[in-house]
Write a structure and sequence with these properties.
By secondary structure, this protein is α+β, with helices and mostly antiparallel strands. It has seven helices and six strands; from the N terminus they run H-E-E-H-H-E-H-H-E-H-E-E-H.
């Protein structure tokens, strides 16, 4: 009987995969069944004529007719993402060294000014550039070792760092700007890095 249940579960999952048109993309980024998890674009279901991405086959099994999870569907696929990365400059530099990427390390706090600065990363021009950096978001504490080492005195402060040098070199320190100026600064730093 257990084997029958396993075979049935596999058949259900395969059916779900083939029921969704292969050329359509999900309308969401986060799983509606487990909202803290990003979707796996290979696991999706059709719901009211739209492709809904899920994070795993377990969520596909839980989906049912979708009514219980419908309120959690946020149609945001294709919109820019905030960068993710290390929680220290050191961690971001290690990531940058490994791939030869420009490092973007943001010292931020919970202020409205830091939130507004982070929204610059969502600009259509800036987003692909910042996502191609080794990123680190560091909680700003005036007396922290990293803040002292990099001479950061306020939040928000974005450091563009060349990780290929030993020690790593800060190419640009940015404390404010517009999407246009931030894009220019990132591109100029990348040119200095040779990337």
């Amino acid at each position: 009987m257990k084997h029958f249940a396993v075979v049935l579960a596999v058949a259900f999952t395969v059916t779900l995969a083939w029921a969704v048109p292969q050329d359509k993309k999900p309308v969401n980024k986060m799983c509606p069944v487990m909202p803290a998890h990003k979707i796996d674009s290979k696991v999706s279901v059709m719901h009211k004529g739209k492709v809904i991405g899920l994070c795993c086959t377990d969520c596909a099994k839980k989906w049912g007719n979708g009514a219980a999870w419908e309120k959690n569907i946020k149609e945001d696929y294709g919109t820019p993402d905030l960068p993710e990365g290390a929680d220290s400059v050191k961690g971001a530099i290690e990531g940058g060294k490994a791939g030869g990427y420009l490092v973007a390390a943001l010292f931020a706090d919970k202020s409205a000014k830091s939130e507004a600065f982070m929204k610059l990363f969502l600009d259509a021009g800036v987003n692909p550039e910042i996502l191609n950096c080794a990123f680190g978001k560091v909680e700003f504490k005036k007396d922290s070792e990293e803040a002292k080492h990099y001479k950061v005195t306020a939040a928000p402060t974005l450091l563009l760092i060349d990780p290929t040098k030993d020690p790593a070199v800060v190419l640009k320190t940015i404390t404010s700007g517009t999407p246009k100026t931030l894009l220019k600064d990132i591109q100029e730093a990348r040119e200095k890095l040779g990337k």
